[in-house]
Amino acid sequence: MVLSKYDEFLGRRLAITHKVVHEWVDRLLAPHEASVTDWIVLKSLQRPEAADGISQRELASWMGIEPPTVLRHLDRLEGAGLVARRRDDRDRRVIRVTLTPAGRQRFQQLAVVMSAADDELRAQLTQRDLDVLYRTLEKLHAYVAAGDGASDPERSSVHVADSR
Questions:
Q1: Which pLDDT belongs to residue 88?
Q2: Which 3 state secondary structure label does DSSP give 49?
Q3: Ramachandran region of residue 91, left (φ > 0), alpha (ψ -120 to 50) or beta?
Q4: Which of 17, 31, 50, 91 could, after both became Cys, cross-link 54 (CB 3.0–4.6 A)?
């Protein structure tokens, strides 16, 4: 296999960059006793379609994580008084999640930190860099999400030799 001058696989570079940025933002949020995951939960619950509460399963889907994982985060945020959970009136099996007034206030506080972090990252790039980056990320996301990538072996050009 011949690799380009970028001698690292693209997926690995994306994963490493995600990890480094995630850890950096966690460090920025730590003095506020928050994490990136807290921010994502609170931001998700700010969406207009979440105004009357969303199911825990729906929240997990929005966050791109498994429902049992979101439960741990909700337990902690509920304990801090930032979110509230209630049974759905029509389907008692469904638990709806909403922001509390304290959760909305915390979201506003963290939004200041996240906005500054975003500004700092954007300052590292030119407008052209940003345009190319966003177009590229959207293109990769669409390709993989549509099942055109290796996740759909029938449609992918990626084939692994049988090792038997």
A1: 85
A2: helix
A3: beta
A4: 50
CB 122 within 8 A of CB 99: no
Determine the distance from the C-alpha atom of residue 35 to the mean position of all C-alpha atoms in its chain, rounded to a whole number. 12
Helix pair 36-45, 67-79: axis angle to 10 deg? 90
What does the block give as tokens for 148? 């055109």
Please check whether residue 32 is in contact with residue 113, taking contact to mean a CB–CB distance below 8 angstroms. Answer: yes
Decide if 138 contacts 85 (C-beta within 8 A): no
The structural domains of the chain, ordered by start, are 10-145 (1.10.10.10)
pLDDT computed for residue 67 by the predictor: 87
Can you tell me the distance from the alpha carbon of 107 to that of 67, in angstroms, rounded to the nearest whole number? 22
Name the stretches of the chain with pLDDT < 50: 163-164
User: Which runs of consecutive H residues, i.e. helices, occur in the chain?
Assistant: 10-29, 36-45, 56-63, 67-79, 101-122, 127-145
The pLDDT value given to residue 116: 97
